[in-house]
């Protein structure tokens, strides 16, 4: 089985962020490649036969394979696959969060929302005749929609990284206590 590779970073543009389907697809594919298949990725690091095949090794099922992963292979996986993938997703989420908090002069629904808002200010509401007439659900600006998506995806990212790191820590001896500490150490050693 070949080792998984880190996800390629997309070209970061406001259009990429505002296309929520593409943004979600990128995050989903990146997570499925590395995090969702972490057990398979770690199993691929196991060297099954270091000194030739031992026929007696098949007599008993080996259920505790956590010590079988070479620490160098684990570190290589974390440094070259896991952390770069996490960093790419962090970069995308941080960039898109910046887009979501910036003014959006190119918002295609801006004029429509302004027109609806002006119309609603002029509207006369008689709740006796129509109790639902006071309800108004303004359209959400695409920056607000993007901000909500980023907030949700960051929560998902926290959960996925904690689960993935639990597996890595269990299978690779010497892993720091938290994924945050490990990722920050990697960033200090590997960032440009």
TrEMBL record:
Domain of life of the organism encoding this protein: Eukaryota
Residues passing through the membrane, by range: none
InterPro entries: MIX23 (IPR019171), MIX23_fungal (IPR016805)
Entry GO terms, CC: mitochondrial intermembrane space
Protein name: Caffeine-induced death protein 2
Pfam families membership: MIX23
Family: Belongs to the MIX23 family.
Entry coiled-coil feature ranges: none
């Amino acid at each position: 089985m070949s080792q998984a590779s880190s996800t390629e970073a997309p070209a970061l543009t406001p259009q990429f962020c505002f296309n929520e389907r593409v943004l979600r697809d990128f995050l989903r594919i990146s997570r499925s490649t590395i995090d969702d298949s972490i057990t398979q990725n770690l199993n691929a690091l196991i060297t099954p036969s270091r000194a030739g095949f031992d026929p007696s090794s098949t007599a008993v099922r080996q259920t505790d394979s956590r010590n079988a992963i070479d620490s160098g292979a684990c570190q290589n996986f974390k440094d070259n696959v896991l952390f770069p993938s996490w960093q790419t997703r962090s970069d995308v989420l941080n960039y898109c969060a910046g887009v979501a908090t910036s003014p959006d002069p190119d918002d295609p629904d801006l004029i429509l929302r302004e027109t609806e808002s002006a119309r609603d200010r002029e509207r006369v509401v008689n709740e006796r005749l129509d109790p639902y007439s006071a309800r108004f659900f303004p359209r959400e600006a695409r920056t607000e929609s993007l901000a909500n998506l980023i907030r949700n995806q960051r929560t998902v990212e926290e959960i996925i990284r904690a689960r993935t790191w639990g597996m890595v820590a269990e299978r690779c001896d010497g892993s720091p206590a938290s994924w945050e500490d490990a990722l920050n150490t990697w960033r200090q050693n590997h960032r440009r």
